[in-house]
Amino acid sequence: MLDIEPWLDLEPGSKGVIDVEDWAEIRRLHRAEGLSIKAIVRRTGLARNTVRDALRCDVPPRYERVSLGSAVDAVEVRVRELLAEFPEMPATVIAERIGWTRGITILRDRVAELRPLFVPPDPCQRTSYMPGELAQWDLWQPDVEIPLGFGQTDKLWVVTSVAGFSRFIGGWMVPSRVAHDVLGGMWQVLGQFGAVPRRAVWDQEGCIGAWRQGRQVLTRDFQAFRGALGMGAILCGPNDPEAKGLVERANGYLETSFLPGRHFDDASDFNRQLVGWLRRANNRVHATTRVRPSEAIFEDRGAMMSFPAVGPDVSLRFSTRLPRDHYVRVDTNDYSVNPRFVGRRVEVRVTLDEVTVICEGTEVARHRRCLAKHQSILHPDHARALRAMRAEQIVATAFEAAVEERDLTDYDRALGVA
Fold first, then answer.
1. Phi and psi dihedrals of 366, rounded to 5?
2. Cα–Cα–Cα angle for 247, 253, 255, rounded to 5 degrees
3. Which has the least CB within 10 A, 73, 190, 226, 312?
4. CA dihedral for 197, 203, 205, 210, sign (positive or negative)
C-alpha cells in the first residue's frame, strides 16, 4: 500500500500538495476519460509528480499541522513515575513534586490523559444517453412508517438511482440523510449496477454539494467518495427538476407500484422486498427504450468503470476515551463496550448496519445498529464482564478490610482485672 505520509505536514496549496477536489478530478480524468499523466498535467497545470502521486494514492489527501510539542513533554517521565506510585495524586501536588513553574492547565490536562493508564478500570454502568455515461440519483422518502424497534416508527429515506442508458433502477433504504448513510446507500446501489457510471447527477443535497457563486461546490465526504471511484459529478441547478427526470419518474413508479399493499417489519425487510421487486421491475420492457433494463444493463455496464481495488470508506469513524459507564454514543443511542477497557482510547466505526468499537487493534464491541432513538444497548457479554469485575472488587475490598480479633482476656490482664 502507498504510504500517504507525503500528503501530511504541509500547508494546503503549497508545492507538492493538492486539495481533495484536485485529487478527485485527477483520478476522474485518468479513470473515466483515460488521459495519460502528461495529458492531465497539460489540462490541470499541476506538476507531473503531483499528478503521479494522486493516481498512486487511494485515499484523499489530508492536512495535519506538525505538532510543536508541549512543555509538559520534558517532565512526562517524572509524572508517570508519580502516577505509577500514587495513581490518585492531584495535579497540583504533582506540580509541587516536580517543581512545575508554568501554567497548571496544561499540566492538569496531561495528568488527566495519563491517569487512566495507572488507575484500575472503575466502571459504573437526462433525451439520450451514451452507455456508461451517467446515472441520476435522488433521496426518496416513502410515505410509510418503518418500525425501528422499542415501539418506535419513522419515515426513512431511500437512495434511488437510474442508469441513463439502460434505465436500470436501483435503490436502498438508509437510516438518515447524513453523509456516511447516503454514501453507504450509494455504494449498495452501485453494487446492484455492477459497475461505476462515469458521472453522477444529484440535486443540491446537503451531504453532496451545492451551487455557490455560479460554481458547484461538493462536500469533502462526497469528493473523497467519487475520487476513490474516479467518478464525475453534476449538481442540478435550482428549480430544474427536468435535469434528473429519470430518477424522479422512477420514484413515482415506486410510489404507485411497489408501496401499495405492503407492510414492513423493519428497514432490512424493506430492502429485501425492494431488491426482490426491482428484479421484476427491471425485467419489464421499458416504455421509452423498448428494451428490458435487465438486458440493457450489460451494454451499459460494459462502458462503465470497474470498481477500484480499494473501495471508498463509507463508514463514520471517530475516536473517544471510554468513560466510566463503558458506553459510546452514536446519534442518540448509547452502545456498551467491554468495561475492562474503561479509560482507554477507542476507535468507533459506524456503518449502515453495525457499530464496531476497536481498542489498539482489538475489537471490544460489535452491535447491530439501532435506528430507534434514545436507547441504551447493552451486550450480554459486557453485562457478564461487569458482574465479574464487581465480584473481583468486592473480594479485594473484603480482604483489605480484614483485621485481627483478640481474646477478651487480653484486655482483662491489661486492665489488672483478676
1. -145, 120
2. 110
3. 73
4. positive
Cα(403)–Cα(405) distance, rounded to whole angstroms? 7
CATH code assigned to 134-303: 3.30.420.10
Distance between CA atoms of 263 and 153, rounded to whole angstroms?
Answer: 13
What is the mean pLDDT of the segment spanning 231-235? 95
pTM of the predicted model, to two decimals? 0.75
The gap between the terminal CA atoms of the chain, to the nearest Å, is 89
Grid cell of 179 as nine digits: 453523509
> 67 falls in which pLDDT band (50, 70, 90)?
low
Phi, psi for 345 (deg, rounded to 5): -80, 130
Mean pLDDT, rounded, for 75-93: 88
Residues in contact with 63: Cβ distance below 8 Å, sequence separation at least 6, in sequence order = 7, 8, 10, 11, 12, 17
- What does the pLDDT average to over 93-99? 89
Domain positions in the chain are: 5-56, 71-117, 134-303, 316-382
- Would you mind telling me the total number of residues written for the chain in this entry? 418
CB atoms within 10 A of CB 343: 18
Question: Given the C-alpha cell 447527477, which residue does it identify?
Answer: 201
